[in-house]
Design a protein that fits this description.
Layout: E1 37-40, E2 50-51, E3 58-59, E4 64-67, E5 76-77, E6 82-91, E7 99-107, H1 119-123, H2 133-142, H3 155-159, E8 168-172, H4 182-189, H5 191-205, E9 209-215, H6 219-231, E10 238-243, H7 252-260, E11 275-279, H8 280-292, E12 298-304, E13 312-317, H9 322-328, E14 349-350, E15 357-358, E16 372-374, H10 395-399, H11 406-414, H12 418-423, H13 434-438, H14 445-508, H15 514-560, H16 568-603, H17 614-641, H18 646-676, H19 684-720, H20 725-744
Parallel strand pairs: 8-9, 8-11, 9-10, 12-16
Antiparallel strand pairs: 1-7, 2-4, 3-6, 4-5, 6-7, 12-13, 14-15, 14-16
Helix pairs in contact: 2-5, 4-6, 5-6, 5-8, 11-14, 14-15, 14-19, 15-16, 17-18, 19-20
Length: 752
Amino acid sequence: MTHLIQLHEFDGGIHPPENKLQSTGRGIKKPPMPNELVLPIHQHIGAPADPVVAVGDTVLKGQTIAQPHGYVSAPLHAPTSGTVIAIEDRVVPHASGLTELSIVIKPDRQDSWIEHQSLCAELGLDDCDDIPADALIARIRDCGIAGMGGAGFPTAVKLNTGKYTIDTLILNGAECEPYITADDMLMRERAVGIIRGAQILLQILKAERCLIGVEDNKPEAIAALEAALLELHEEHHIDVVTIPTKYPSGGEKQLIQILTGKEVPSGGIPAQVGIVCQNVGTALAIAEAVDEGKPLISRITTVTGDTIVDKGNWDVLLGTPVSHLLKASGYQAPGKRKIFSNKKPTRIIMGGPMMGFALPTTELPVVKTTNCILAPTNKELPANDIAMACIRCGMCADACPADLLPQQLYWFSKAEELDKAEQHNLFDCIECGACSYVCPSEIPLVQYYRHSKGAIREERATYQKAEQARERFEARIARQEREQAEKDAKRKARAEAAAKAQEAKKSAAPTNSAADKASISTSTVQAATNSADLEKLQKQLTGAQAALVKTKEKLEAAQNDPDQADKVALFEGALAKTQDKIKKIAIDMAAAKKAAKTSTTEAGVSDKGDPNSPERLKKKWDTAHARLETASKRLTEAQEQGLDTVELLTQGLEKQKARVEEAKAAYEAVSSSTKNSSVAEVSTDDLNKENANDELNRKIRAQQDRVAKANERLEMAKAEGLDTVDALTKAHTKQLEKLAGLEAQLTPAGEA
């Protein structure tokens, strides 16, 4: 230590037996290569990574096999070269024995690396101090580095401090939990890499100082760090601070309080008080990532306990099964003389005795947060007896380093009064286990707190999903109302435009009175409304028919599947309901069509003269004759094809012939009457001219209807501001030209 650092105290804490000398008798070794590596895609806090390899792919050491998903996430890399033999759910290291998607690699024993180099060389810089902070953080993220002190928070996210100004960097080398010596041996043997990592972190954070906190029971590690400072000429910028041995001085908030006297606010983060805290193992991984381009693919893990022959620390590839590591350490099952037993052990703990958890099987893999495998005998680490009633001694409150009320939290957790537990700062509990350690009633307090935290997180997630569902529902309703309002506005605009066009047309005809115009306008609006209703009913009918098909399919599937027998009645009821709905829609459509036809007729009322006039009767005769020709063609086609409808078509043809004769007789009778009542006898030429004019008048009336329709479409397009105005204008002009041409062919009355 080169500067005088004033140390501070934190409340609570305990002094359990250290049991560290057992695993510091030898240096760090590498175990043999296992037969397979199991790599869970979720080895960090945040979202799990997304696999980017497939079964059968060949991978190289250091190759990315899973990409981060979202901001708070981290990639995963192949610890060695080999073949991906499975991507499936495997049991992962967790107190509850959960399964999670994992990538399984079979090593090829070649240990072939991908191409990798330092970030400085990659950027083409002469001095590593010139590397931008953003590039350093990106390299740390790409190398998959997560906090190696136990939490596993993605380091790149932690270094993005945002609005907070950082003045102090703290490296955590306290390692206060009993049995664990991974960081101790790391500081002894790789101190230069740790100091190099501290330099990179200072460059990123632009902090004023760096403090490395180490407990005073690690003199060799302190000496190695001091020597590394001198080697890298950092003795005036980085301080190695010796702190008293006390559990849990290695907790992030407790170490910050010891070294700086600052307290992180409840629910806050160290950056709020200008501090960033990293583990010494994380610092070494950062140095290797930046200076060598190596991703995080291994970690130092302590293997200890009285059932272990070769106690010590191992440089373990991620994904190595715990059983393989135990075998390499000479594990002896309790009560047996064999070096290794395939039978399930009585108790194997991942982590230390205070914060670790018992493994359900030894086939679980080593992950980024694994710092210790503890295999004790029952005598060495007895199992807890049955919990007794709380005697309210208050020893748990005295031992709590977070100044909480463990006894009160216990009552709230046991009674599932989660809101009260949260109000008493349950989430400030670091789960150090000090309260459980001193409890004379042997109550597993930490387990109650973990359960309550999980329940609260689940409630929050459920509430958040409900809120998101509510927001989506409200947005959907608002969208539907908006769309309906837009449709109504367009429908109203079309109706008004049609009414205006009809009024303009009628105003041009002198025979129509004001009352007639008002009636026509009202009828036109009603016709447009009925047409829109009919269109809506048609859409409902189409949807109901589609639903009917799907329901029938589901009913058939349920009838053929014994497992869905209980759903047959449900689908039959839905089918009947849909059929009734289709019938009702059909009835409504028939009524709407009738109303639309009536409205259209009323809207198109005009004085067309006497219905028994020769012109009207001649038109009726022509229409009947055209229908007769159509009926004759259909009959001929049916006879040629030998259809069953020949008899019906023959009857229809005979009826149509009768209509033609009837229309012809009516026309001839009126024509004869007209001739007899004439003042002068009409010559044969005049009669031919009259017949020609009658046909021409019929064409003119039809063309006038086309002109009116073209004008109506044009006016509606103008009212709605459509892009078809120019095209409709041209069409209207052409129809007017045709009408003018027909009118020019008329022969004036009395002209020779």
